[in-house]
Write a structure and sequence with these properties.
Chains A, B: Pathway: Amino-acid biosynthesis; L-threonine biosynthesis; L-threonine from L-aspartate: step 3/5; Amino-acid biosynthesis; L-methionine biosynthesis via de novo pathway; L-homoserine from L-aspartate: step 3/3. The structure is a homodimer. Helix content of chain A is 41%, strand content 21%. By secondary structure, chain A is of the alpha/beta class. Chain A folds into 2 domains: 166 residues, NAD(P)-binding Rossmann-like Domain (Rossmann fold), CATH 3.40.50; 161 residues, Dihydrodipicolinate Reductase, domain 2 (2-Layer Sandwich). In chain A, the strands form 2 sheets. A 6-stranded mixed sheet of chain A has the order 3-2-1-4-5-6, sandwiched between helices. In chain A, strand 5, helix 6 and strand 6 form a beta-alpha-beta unit. The interface between A and B is large, with 42 and 42 residues. Strand 11 of chain A pairs antiparallel with strand 11 of chain B, so a sheet runs across the interface.
């Protein structure tokens, strides 16, 4: 039985769910793949836990509750170097300027010959090309489902389900939070501030909602997808961006009167000038496939040359679903199904 | 550069399109996978063409136009045995009782250590379990996208996009022809006979439309999916079936009055009594996700434990798209991405 040692960095909400699901699925991995998959390490900004025999739920809970610095000599670098892990799952916060610790961890993991699964977006936004080339050079996988709409398949569609097709374009409602805010404004006639507050109260929006609300989340996703699946060299700063915060009551009233529905739509199109990625606030009519995509529901539409068009709606938008998307990537790694 | 020799059996409409696409993509395969993919053989019921250096378009056209028995000593068995091919694409007519020549070809190919891609359904309906076990024993792939809604991903969703999730159920509008007939009856107030005739005139329905119209096509797809993705032992005769032919003008009028839309829905559900596969004519209300799926458009809805629900609509329903689905399978084989 092959042993797969896993470490999770940036151990927060999604990391905890990934650890829980992974423990739950150990029997399944053994039976289906003859694989002994164990979580041997977990690290957050100031401390880390490590056990070559696998971290139990209790140890993780105690560590999570304590908040204390378990390993006083902690350094992320040493942690990864000494972990002898096979797979890194990086779930930390996204630093869109430098890539932050996530970029350092993923780069180091790949350099050490580990496979890497990114849930956080910062590293991929800042240097997808570099990381991808490094993974290729080392013969390991770099998987990104968790960073590109998670339970809603996006990179899968482009690289797996439509293998061999020419992708003519892709557009999507990629951020559940913004769609929730727009839906509430339309359906309940509240302002964007009120709708954002509502989303925060329901745990849908972060305390600082800017990343989602101001279009950064969608912009990150289209940047990563453009570079990963269209061989583009798109920078986050190249992507036009729109904020749901700017939507006024007057606009909402006008859209309603015209039978239109506002959606924050991320898109990637092939143009004569090359790949164009954008985030725009569009008011779509009732016949548009995104018109009925409401609340936190996400959606993506892909247009191809010979297989036609595909509209995909759904996929849960919670930490468990994000963790499950990362473990889907992990399972593809165990199967040897690398990204293309 | 690794050489991949391909043969196509049951060389008809889809087979021709597969040959054309394959020729078109040879440069792409070389560049992307360092793979020299060539069509070395093509066979139909009474004759076969073979060229170890690859069949050119002209040779195929001439053979197709002539209809003559090129190889007078033709036997499918000898053809496959002497082809030294790596991949079989079987696109012949479906014999739902015996599996027909398709079953013989696929079985023989697997036994010879060839990978097999099924577009026709007969062999899979009759003996998926046997073929799958044989493929496993020989360490080769058995791929079935072309036989399970082609450009609309179904088996992909269950085995790849949702890897690790528990699939709670799946339902779909799996047959474009029946959906076209029902849509025409609802929208134009014509009888099922008239709608079927219209579909035949447009090349959507076969001269003998029974396979689609009487629910066999949908029943085949759910039978294959149940056995391939749910580890079930469903026989085609276990699947309840409904025919679009039986829909009366009175029913249509009543559904219209009630704001309902009839759909031929294939489904697979986990029940306490095991896996249940069914084909039913359901009148769905306007809020149902299939209500807006019109004409030849297909759709599938999958419900999972932790990733939520996914609704997928679209994927072209023509011979080119079916061929492209088979070549997607071929590309996964080249990548070493076998089915799970």
């Amino acid at each position: 039985m092959k042993q797969w040692n896993v470490v999770i960095t940036g151990f927060g909400t999604v990391g905890k769910q990934a650890a829980r699901l992974l423990a739950q699925r150990q029997g399944y991995y053994r039976e289906k793949y003859d694989a002994d998959v164990r979580l041997v390490g977990a690290a957050r900004s100031t401390s880390a836990l490590y056990d070559a025999n696998g971290l139990g739920e209790e140890a993780l809970l105690e560590w999570g509750a304590s908040g204390k610095r378990v390993d006083t000599t902690f350094s992320g670098y040493e942690f990864l170097a000494s972990s002898h892990a096979d797979i890194l799952i990086e779930t930390g916060p996204s630093d869109l300027k430098t890539g932050g610790p996530g970029l350092i961890y993923i780069k180091q993991a790949l350099e050490q010959g580990m496979h890497a699964i990114a849930v956080s977006k910062g590293a991929l936004v800042v240097d997808f090309a570099g990381l991808s080339a490094l993974a290729k050079q080392k013969g390991v996988h770099l998987k990104i489902s968790g960073a590109t709409a998670a339970a809603l398949p996006t990179i899968d569609l482009l690289q797996y389900n439509f293998a061999g097709c020419q992708i003519l374009g892709i557009e999507g409602v990629f951020t559940g939070t913004t769609n929730f805010v727009l839906t509430k404004m339309m359906e309940e006639g509240i302002t964007s501030e009120e709708a954002i507050l509502r989303a925060q109260q329901m745990g849908i929006a972060e305390p600082d909602p800017s990343f989602d609300i101001d279009g950064w989340d969608t912009a990150c996703k289209v940047t990563i997808l453009a570079n990963a699946a269209f061989d583009a060299q798109v920078k986050l700063s190249d992507v036009s961006r729109a904020s749901v915060r700017e939507v006024t009551d007057e606009q909402i009233a006008a859209w309603k009167a015209a039978g239109l529905t506002p959606k924050l739509i991320g898109s990637i199109q092939k143009t004569p000038q090359g790949i164009k990625a954008a985030v725009e606030l569009q008011a779509v009519d009732a016949a548009h496939p995104f018109a009925t995509v409401k609340g936190t529901t996400k959606a993506v539409r892909v247009e191809t040359d010979v297989m036609g068009e595909l509209l995909v709606i759904g996929g849960k938008s919670d930490p468990v679903a994000a963790a499950a998307a990362a473990l889907k990537d992990l399972e593809h790694i165990i199967r040897g199904q690398r990204a293309y």
